Amino acid sequence: MKTIKYVFAIAGAILFTGLISCKKEFLQIPVQGALADEILANKIGVDKLLVGAYGQLDGVVANSGSAWEAAPGNWIYGSIAGGDAHKGSFGGDQPAIDPIAKFIADGSNGFFNSKWKAIYNGVSASNSVLNLVARAKDIT
Length: 140
Known about the structure:
By secondary structure, the protein is an all-alpha fold. It contains 7 helices and no strands.
């Protein structure tokens, strides 16, 4: 008799959990601290997002070692790697540039990660602007 009560209790708990977990409202909670697209889908909102996208493309990555690891001028990845420039100074000054100049750098070089983050963030911000331009009603 006790086992039948336990079986019914466990089955009821599983059924109750299954019914509660299928509610759609539970899965559609807005992200805290994020602006909704409806707020930004106007001329002022798109303009501010565009300024933010240009800000992302300036190469300054938050929490990176230095701003010029991902600078838009591509001094390291263009001029240094291409042989048009030399970093100068001594071997202990920015040693991650030496493998790039010698074409022996691998994926563990932190400069590549900084550059990738800067480009990815800039492209993501630009895509957000393009998505909202189409939805804005007050932009000709």
